[in-house]
Amino acid sequence: MRRSTFRAPSLFAYRNRGPRMTTTLVPRRGILERLGLTAPIAIGLAAVTVFLIGDGIESVWLANYLHTAEGFTVAEASAVITAYGIVVAIASFFSGALPEALGVRRVMTIGLVVFLVFAALFILVALPSQNLGLVIGIYALRGIGYPFFAYGFLTWVLNSSAPEKQSSVAGWFWFAFSSGMQIIGPALASVLLPGTGAIATLWVGFALAALGGIAGIVFLGRTAEATAPTEHGGASAALARGLSILWRRPKVSLLLIVKVVNLAGPLAVAVFYVPYLVSEIHLPEYLAINVFTVYGISAVIGNVVWGNLGNRIGWHRATQWIATPLCALGIFAYYYIPQLVGPNFALIALASVIMGAGASAYVPMNPLAIAHGHGETGAIMSVLNLGAGLAAVVGPGLVAALVAVTGYQGIAWGLIALYGVAFIVTMFLKLPNEAELRSAQSAQIAVPVGH
């Protein structure tokens, strides 16, 4: 009997015995590659997430702390958050232009240093002084930090990724952003506050932001493209393009309005809802904070769901008929469910599920905006960043303006009215050729709203 000469193929290739016939087996892709990531980007995202946990650890309870522990009125506490939002808005817009002139790593370093300096001053100087002007000034300047650091990293991610990877990578950035600032940060605060108190919790946030920030800066120091300015013009030119598109293409101005309203609701709720639940509904503070953890989970899941469904439903249709009504319903539920059921966390959390689903349903607005930009994608993204920042002014500002006049019920109806305005404005943003554009830009829809 002839002895078999069969040999098992190697892992990657098998050469047939026939003449010049070679079959190559493609190696199995790794987990990160299947997720649309590379190892360097995954490491950077982890660092950004840790930074944002530290940055956002006080986001949903600070207004209540300023009111109950530091003696400020709800309107004064809201003014602190509003001033912070103004600086965030300006920094968000600049974060899209400065990397071109300074390099991404330098912009991120500025953001980290500014955050750490003013976070320390806020804890050591502003809060002990109980001086409203000092609290407003120092906390507001801290708002330069996260837009420069986080959005600066997003700039590097998009510039260093192949075009076909940019959508999925941007989606993972917003997943990390939401996870750090809206889920893990508030959840960690709800655990720390009862046992360690507010000041110790703020120091934990400071330490986490420093850890994530330093890790991110060190990591980016190994990438040449993150350290050098780009060749697309100076910061002033980029800023000019981002501003002038508002009057060169008037529908972009309408998109800015919708973007502001999109995030103004959740940001306003973050200011007034914990005081409302604690003082009027008598829900324990740690449970009131966890209401926002539920919102974050709902929004993160919604980013994925609406990112996939938006292209089928239609960008304009999803924005007008799903996102806006759901957000209005969520605000309605936020106020009236506690009025009906009292301090029942499970039922109150349903409002967060609705609100998270509605806020994330604005995902298709990104490709809708890009389509209205007619190729000026950079300017469009600057406008959307500006809208996200302005929302941090409008939301808390509405609370500050109404709380003493109308109470919490008036705030809720004021926000519902804003979503009504967004619904009307969106009517004028239809694209006659949207179906063709959706087919051509299908890879763009998975970029969650930039929170």
Number of strands: 2
Quaternary state of this entry equals single chain
Query: Which class do the helix and strand fractions yield?
Result: mainly alpha
Query: Which spans have pLDDT < 50 for at least 5 consecutive residues?
Result: 1-27, 442-451
CATH third-tier fold name? Growth Hormone, Chain: A
Biggest sheet, spatial arrangement of strands: 1-2
CATH architecture: Up-down Bundle
Write the H/E string, N to C. EEHHHHHHHHHHHHHHHHHHH
Radius of gyration (Å) = 24 Å
Q: Any idea what the CATH superfamily is called?
A: MFS general substrate transporter like domains
Q: What is the first-to-last residue Cα distance? A: 73 Å
Helix content: over 70%
CATH class: Mainly Alpha
Number of helices: 19
Structure characterization notes:
This protein is an all-alpha fold and 451 residues long. The protein has one domain: MFS general substrate transporter like domains (Growth Hormone, Chain: A), CATH 1.20.1250. It has 19 helices and 2 strands. It has helices at 31-34, 39-55, 62-68, 74-95, 98-102, 104-129, 132-142, 145-160, 163-196, 198-220, 224-227, 235-248, 250-281, 285-313, 315-341, 345-360, 365-372, 377-426, 434-440; strands spanning 13-15, 22-24. A two-stranded antiparallel ribbon has the order 1-2. Helix 2 runs parallel beside helix 9 and helix 13 (250-281) packs parallel to helix 15. The chain is globular. The termini are far apart. The model is unreliable at 1-27 and 442-451 (pLDDT under 50). It comes from Mycetocola tolaasinivorans. This is MFS transporter. The chain crosses the membrane at residues 35-54, 74-95, 107-127, 133-158, 170-193, 199-220, 254-274, 286-306, 318-337, 343-363, 383-405, 411-429.
